Every structure is written in C-alpha cells, then in structure tokens.
Amino acid sequence: MARFWDIAVKNFKIVIRDRMYLVMLIIMPIMIMLLVGLAFRGEETIKYRVGYINNDTNPLSRASEFIESLETPLAEWNMADMLTMQQYSDLSKLKEDFRLGNIKGGLIIYEGFSDPTPIKPANVTLFVDESDISAAANIKARIMIVSQLLFNPQALQQAVYIKSPDEPISVEFSAMNFMVIGTLTYAISIISFSTALSFAKERQSGTFSRMRTTPMSTMDLLTGGLISNVAVSLLQATLVFGTAYALGFQPMGATDMDKLVNMLAAFAVTAILAVAFVGIGLVLAAFAKNEDQAVGISWMIIIPMMFISGTWFEPTDPTMNTVAHAFPATYANKAVRAILARGAPLASMYSYIIALVVYAAIAYTVGVFLFRKKTA
Fold this sequence. Notes:
The structure is a single chain. The chain has two domains: 48-162, D-Maltodextrin-Binding Protein, domain 2, CATH 3.40.190; 175-374, no CATH class. Helices cover 63% and strands 6% of the residues. By secondary structure, it is of the alpha/beta class.
C-alpha cells in the first residue's frame, strides 16, 4: 500500500514542478468560462438588424408607423427594443447584405399596405436567417406581434407572410449549411495540434540534433511537414463536404458553375487556413518542452478559438467580435460561410481572403523563425 502512495506522491510532485502543466490545469477551466461569459454577455436584450424596403407610395400609408413600431415599440406594449431597422431602396442590395451576414432578415412592404382592410399576408413579406435559430424565432415573433397589435389586436391569424426556405426565389439558408462550415474549420484547426505534437516529439527525441550530421536541414523537415499537413487538410475538406452532401448539404450559388467555383474557393481557403495553423503549431512546438506540454498548449489555443471565431455560433458581445480577428478561423469562417452558405459573390469576400493569406504568411514565417531558433 505504501508503494502505491509513494507513486501517487511522486506523480503529484511531477505535476507541481511542471509549471506549464500546472498553469494549464488551473488556467484552462477558468479561461474557458471567462470566454463563454465574455462572448455571450452582450446586452440583456440582443438587437437584430433587419433590412426593409417600403414600396407603398400611398400618402396615407401606415408603413412608416409600422417600421417605427418595430424599432421602438409603444410604451404600453411593454416590449424591449429588439430590432434595428435599416432601409434599402434596392432589393438586390438588401439580399446581398443578407448573404454577407450584415443583416439578419429582410422585410418587403408592397403596394396596398395602406388598404383600409386589416393587413393582408400578400402585402408584407419577411425572410430571416434560418441558420441563426434564436434570431429567426425572435424576429418572426416580434414582427408578427407588432403587426397584430398595430393593425388588428383581436386577430389571431398570421398577419405577415413569412417566406419558406425552399421557395425558388428565396435567399434563406439552413442551419446545416452554417454548421458544415464550422465543422470544416474545426477539423482543420486540429492541424495546429498535430504539428505542435509531432515537432515537439521530434525535438525531444533528438531528431534535429542528428540531422546536423546529414545533408538534410531543419528547413527541409519543416517544409515537408507543411506540405503533408496542407494535403491532409484538403483530404479533411473532401471528407467533410462528401459526408455533408450525403446528408443533404447544398452549396449556394446562382448557377451550377457558380457552385463549382465557390466549392473550389472553399478548398483554396482551406489550404491557406492549414498554412496558418501549421505556423501556429510551430510557435507552440517552439515553446513546449515536451509532448505533453505541446498537447495542452494546443488545446488552450484551439478551444477558445472555436468559441470566439464564430465556428459554431456568433458571439453576441461586440468586444469579443473584435478579439475574434486575432484568429485565422474567423476570416475562414466568414469567407467560406458567406460563399457556400449564403451564396455571396466570391469577389465580395476578397478582404477576408486577403487577410487570411497575410495571417498565414506571417504565422508560418514567425513559426519557422522561432522553431529554428529554439532548436539551434
């Protein structure tokens, strides 16, 4: 029995003496909870931006009153402000902003809205971001309630026509499309973990010391690791999209050619993201003293990144949305999700793609520099 106790004490002392491991044990749960709290603290009532077009030219129209009541409900209704209404004059521009994720829904008011009869379904059309379940439910409910209170308090019938996602002219997209992109980003992020682990293992086993006696250089090994990891990332993308297709995933695009181009763009972004994660992995491997530390540090980076970068859901806190730009996954999520899940034009995503390219170049250059310096 004493021997078991001695082993337990020995293991405990190892943990205490390994400061990096101890920090991970203590800091990791605190950091995750802080990130969750900061990412979703937001305002007590989340505000959603909804675009609208008012096509009712009747001077007696109550359309303006309707829009004002949506943005600032009457005091006697006892409703918190939830919607920020943004006016558009062009339907194509409204749909473009919707695909880019700049607004969560679109409201179209047609001629005849000011008809003296109760508001008719044909006079108002609403489409919402179906991938954001909370936003979709809240926007639909608010618009339905306000329209009934304002025009016909006793009416229980649907007062606003809500377009269904399967209509040919619809611009809605599904929650599945949203999650497929997140799954892809998460799969690629594991490359930073595998890179940090493999290179930390090579350094710990003395591979780099033995390499100095051969014609092969450290840079040869790093370049080989980069090529193999990018190849693995493309394979991961193929598996993710292949499985998603089997389950009903359909990329957005006006034509089949657009869909093909968008899919090729997604694979290109995947390769660039892989380079960024390899760079991050090299930085982590440079500071990790052994394999265990490489594993722990990697997950300390990957998990917060998934919370903040919009991989599974969009943070509601503005500050955390700003912090998210410190992670390459943020740019990849925004670009690929807009292209494949919302049908945004590829050219409209150039700023995110350029930012990701710059990030990948810097991350890999810094990673190579630090790793070579630590193994010199």
